[in-house]
Design a protein that fits this description.
This protein is of the alpha+beta class. About 20% of the residues lie in helices and about 20% in strands.
């Protein structure tokens, strides 16, 4: 069995409700939400970080963004706006090493810290 938390969620061994799924992408609510809407948008393929993308896999970011936009519309936060974040590596604040995009919204997001 995979050691990767998000691979286990994707495989269904760690039961988690998907708010969106397609052939390449799944999305589920963050367990520790930082905003009223906080969804993690995740490629089914195990790719550790955004720094690993390129060549054949470069298109994954477009798929994640398209899914996030659709989830934002379905959540009714499309007009007010929202924040998309990808943390990369230790200094980027990444804690789960399976690529994911955070969709945050439903309130005014604070200015990014310097
Ligand atoms: P990162 O810090 O790697 O960008 O984001 C990882 C996110 O995964 C964190 O916001 C954390 O709250 C979330 N998370 C960690 N474990 C779980 C889990 O078991 N289920 C869900 N739904 N989210 C998780
Ligand atoms: Zn994984």
């Amino acid at each position: 069995m995979s050691e990767c938390l998000f691979c286990r969620i994707i495989a269904g061994t760690l039961p988690t409700e998907f708010v969106y799924e397609d052939e390449h992408v799944v999305a589920f609510r963050d367990i520790n939400p930082a905003a009223p809407v906080h969804v993690l948008v995740v490629p089914r393929a195990h790719i550790e970080t955004v720094a690993d993308l390129g060549g054949d896999t470069a298109g994954i970011m477009s798929r994640l963004t398209a899914a996030a936009n659709r989830i934002a519309r379905d959540a009714g936060i499309h007009n007010g706006g929202y924040r998309l974040i990808v943390n990369c590596g230790r200094d980027g604040g990444q804690t789960v090493f399976h690529l994911h995009m955070h969709l945050l919204g439903g309130r005014q997001m604070p200015e990014l810290a310097a």
